[in-house]
Amino acid sequence: MAPVEAKQTHMHENPSDFNTEASFPRFAELIPNTTVTVGRDALLACVVDNLKGYKVAWVRVDTQTILSIHHNVITQNPRISLTYNDHRSWYLHIREVEENDRGWYMCQVNTDPMRSRKGFLQVVVPPAIVEAQTSNDMVVREGTNVTLNCKAKGFPEPYVMWRREDGDEMAIGGENVNVVDGEILYITKVSRLHMAAYLCVASNGVPPSVSKRVQLRVQFPPMLSIPNQLEGAYVGQDVVLECHTEAYPASINYWTTERGDMIISDLSRTGDKFETMSRNTGYTKYMSLKIRNVGPADFGSYRCVAKNSLGETDGLIKLDEIPAPTTILTTESLYNNRSKGRKANKKHDPMMVGDYGVEEWKENGPSIRHPPGAFHNASSTVRTATCGVFVLLQLLSALLHVYHLHHLLAPSATGRRR
Length: 418
What we know:
Radius of gyration: 54 Å
Strand content: 35-45%
Number of strands: 30
Shape: elongated
Structural class: alpha+beta
Low-confidence stretches: 1-19, 341-387, 411-418
């Protein structure tokens, strides 16, 4: 009973100071949880109404470290400072936040009992690649198994994925996929189709995301393909022979003649007999051999050769002679020229024989068109005989006309002699 009586006496002595909540300091706002990226500055605010003569202190909860009391900074951490405004707002500043600054912070007022509010400072860290645990560029033999590793750190823990830099799909586990989730990319029986630059990408929602580029090179001996193993050309023509190769490391490519002599061309000299050219696209190479003004000695076989440190291969192309194209004069052109002449003269020649139609002939080959008289056969003989009879009739008609005139003029001559 004694404590109760004492308490009552105490309340009776100071009725205005006790039992009235409004007379005590109170927190006007909660201390919000704050998220800051490592290396940035953090600000924690504590707003207290009706502070009166009480004092405000900032405390690190997990370590029970007093950071500040009223207007004074207690901690020896040079990155921490304090500002205040109108004896009501108290701000704790943490400059260049570090990961170990993550935790609970408490603002307390030295009432009895103590009053306090606390807020959490979250420190996030953008992802970073751990180089010591991540694969570097690799060179492997075709057909082996390959493992690419990628380790990333950050807070929250980063999400890691693999993809090709060129955006093409990856043949992984018998399927074509665009992305492989996780820190490990495993390729069984790697082939030249896997040769590419791969990106390990790490992200955790804190910008920026990061990536590392790993170049995968697959070694294999040269392989060769020829679009046309038999080419044809006529004398005087220019011809181009083509050859395609695949190899890694890059192969040495060249052409040889049928006798095995290497063909060397100098592009700085114009008009050379041979011109060689090659063009690389990744591990593939296109090579061509141009032969100018083909002559009889140029017909034969040509060989394209590819060599690298793992082996060599070659392919043969045969160049054969074909007949040169010829131009055939047809009856239509003769007829057109003759028609133009008639239009210019605008006269009719009764002795002119009419044009014959175009005749065609086909025997195990394309139709060949011939002008009149090209065939010496029965039909042409009949036409020749018909033409001769027509000429004889014209001569007989002329003779009869002369005789008739002579007969008419004879009596007049006799009368004049009388």
